[in-house]
Amino acid sequence: MPDHLVYLKRVPLFVGLSDTHLQRIANSVHERTFEPGTPIVSEGEPGQGFYLIVSGRARVQRGDRVIRTLDPGDYFGELALLRNQPRSATVVAADRTTCLALTRWDFKGLLEATPTIAVHLLETVSARLDDADTR
User: Fold this and answer.
1) In the sheet where 97-103 sits, what is the strand order?
2) Residue 60: beta bridge partners?
3) Spatial contact of 13 and 75, defined as CB atoms under 8 Å apart
4) From 79's CA, which of 11, 29, 50, 55 has a CA 20 to 30 Å away?
5) Confidence band for 117, pLDDT divided at 50, 70 and 90
6) Tally of CB atoms within 10 A around 2
């Protein structure tokens, strides 16, 4: 199994967590690979988890419009860890793309065992929402 901890340490969402907490998250992620043109998540479908791009690139789309391109180290779906809402955009693999995926149900188990992770995540997501509102 690759050392997922190395990738997770680079995610702003997890900055400030101890290595112990990061290791718990790393133990819960699953590596998934998507071929070019394959949707990773689809707009309107229920959000089931968080994805961190390890290799490859992906396009974030709303309808036919490309909103942005995601590169290795970029992530999406963090709100799906906290709530069951439809996806606000489609993310499609532009290249052969490998992601680390963390499902909401696996994450809930982590939160029950380690509430410190929940507090940190809420603070970080809140800051990201504030940033998005000011744009």
Assistant:
1) 30-34, 97-103, 49-55, 75-76
2) 68, 91
3) yes
4) 55
5) confident
6) 11
CB 55 within 8 A of CB 98: yes
Residue 92 has pLDDT above 70, yes or no: yes
Question: Angle at Cα 128 formed by Cα 76 and Cα 12, nearest 5°?
Answer: 65
H-assigned helices in 15-103: 19-28
Looking at 2.60.120.10, 1.20.1250.20, 2.60.410.10, 3.40.50.10070, the CATH number of the domain 4-134 comes to 2.60.120.10
Q: pLDDT band at 99, cuts 50/70/90?
A: very high
Rg (alpha carbons) of the chain, rounded to whole number: 14
Could you state, in order of their start, the residue ranges of all structural domains in the chain? 4-134
- Per-residue pLDDT of 50-74, as tens digits, reads 999 999 999 999 988 999 999 998 9
